[in-house]
């Protein structure tokens, strides 16, 4: 295995204006298009199985129909017009009746952070549908103070909770590797976000798990919403040799980076045989209840003292969604680099679909906020991503520059810019295509 | 005994009356003109319109709504949102507004407060402050509808605004806004103690007892209401009669049934 270089060469000629076809990364569509109804572009990758994510992975991307409208907008229309929500709620009640326990044990697992969506899910299941949820939380990389407050407010609203916090050294190393290999600082969080709840269900013999809204609400294939159940591939795996964390195989992590195999445990997917044997079912509550993020926010404020964050999240205009992890700002910063899609685009697209804002407003918000560098926690995040000799006596040798700083981070960012999205003009980076020009 | 004014606050976005919680998650409520007319018919003392995204989008789109409103609403009208210059103020006043409320533009260029009050009189210059609690008896002024921090102490800013010529302070608690859990009384008290001009308490009104506390403990001169009125939890008549019953000196007003 080669060590990670301190400096990367960048061939700027790829980023000039050119008549010839431009290189595309990650298998993204060569021609950039924007949805006619919202502001999402056709570059938005679908959820992928993070265990299989390596440097060479290619992306499936959001589907646009012949009228130039994205699947997420089509699903939003379907939610409003064709889905029979009374029938869906009846199905939910039947599911709850089948699983409800009144013998002093839990009957469902609700994963979440105590953000507005998981607050709503757990609270509805307990207080409206008479279930006995056990809530489980996979800790953020670094809590924001308001994220911690909201997590406590969730518990305060009447829920038992298991908080799983992975060992921070391993988490930091995996996050650094995910940045280095995939420019994906949120990956280490996503492992647990998807796998923890099914594993806790196995551990506690609770055969029903409820996630919140389906990812298809944001652009995964619309066919994913025809079932309430979550695809096993996201949280189970049969073959250890097929598992990659931070884009690195488990063998290499042990051999080259000095990670002890026990330190993989929190990240490991559930064994599909166990899931089958214990008949664990993983459902989306969003299949049964018409999900509306803004209403979840209202609900969480009213029933639990949920607090919006005290400031606008960098890169967007919102204060109420995905606010508990200090690394999250960087997550969306990297999607802007890789796919040209920053957080304001994601937020505005969702709010346009839910008719909170018009497309015109969405375009203005994207223009104003998308891709803003997240200054507020930057120094702390760079320290977090630094693999010091003292803390990582083995792993640090794998990096020519173990210390992460802004220059290094930005140089790395340039490696992940796809020439078909970015051009270099007067020493600055510009997107070739935007929704506002 | 002080006269206390009851004010309906209508936050507007595009063509819609909207309502948020902590100035976030804006929900569409309806046509602002219809709501303004309803509150006028119920005997409101004043109306405040704020275009809450004007600064965010750098536009100013309230003129039409103001013109329409002044055709059938005959109480003082304060208009805010995206007003950045003396010319903007003149346009608003010509459209029928009686006062303007300024937040973002004043924070960016405090001198604007003096320019407006010199030109049109201080009675027309309302300094709007969005204050977020940052410690015990400490608040920070925000702009862009509670989205952007300034590092400016909200109470200090109120005092400075008065010195520059503001005739009234509209003080909104970002923490309490939209929650119907009561005003931030300490904030109101701190501001009304710092300036000799009228203070309008905004953000958190859920019941008449909140109003009474804002008057008696907070020493406010007026309350701005939104949530309780927009969601139909109380009418202006309810508020007025309950306030009067609690010895608050509100205007006695008889609404003629239509």
Automatic annotation (TrEMBL), chain A:
SUPFAM superfamilies: Adenine nucleotide alpha hydrolases-like (SSF52402)
Source organism of this protein record: Anaeroselena agilis
InterPro entries, per the entry: N-acetyl_sugar_amidoTrfase (IPR020022)
Protein name (record): N-acetyl sugar amidotransferase
From TrEMBL, chain B:
InterPro entries from the UniProt entry: Aldolase_TIM, His_biosynth, HisF, IGPS_HisA/HisF, RibuloseP-bd_barrel
Catalysis: reaction(s): 5-[(5-phospho-1-deoxy-D-ribulos-1-ylimino)methylamino]-1-(5-phospho-beta-D-ribosyl)imidazole-4-carboxamide + L-glutamine = D-erythro-1-(imidazol-4-yl)glycerol 3-phosphate + 5-amino-1-(5-phospho-beta-D-ribosyl)imidazole-4-carboxamide + L-glutamate + H(+)
Documented EC number(s): 4.3.2.10
Listed pathway(s): Amino-acid biosynthesis; L-histidine biosynthesis; L-histidine from 5-phospho-alpha-D-ribose 1-diphosphate: step 5/9
Gene3D superfamilies linked to this entry: Aldolase class I
Signal peptide: none
Family (UniProt): Belongs to the HisA/HisF family.
Role: IGPS catalyzes the conversion of PRFAR and glutamine to IGP, AICAR and glutamate. The HisF subunit catalyzes the cyclization activity that produces IGP and AICAR from PRFAR using the ammonia provided by the HisH subunit.
Assembly and oligomerization: Heterodimer of HisH and HisF.
The protein's name: Imidazole glycerol phosphate synthase subunit HisF
The organism of origin for this protein: Anaeroselena agilis
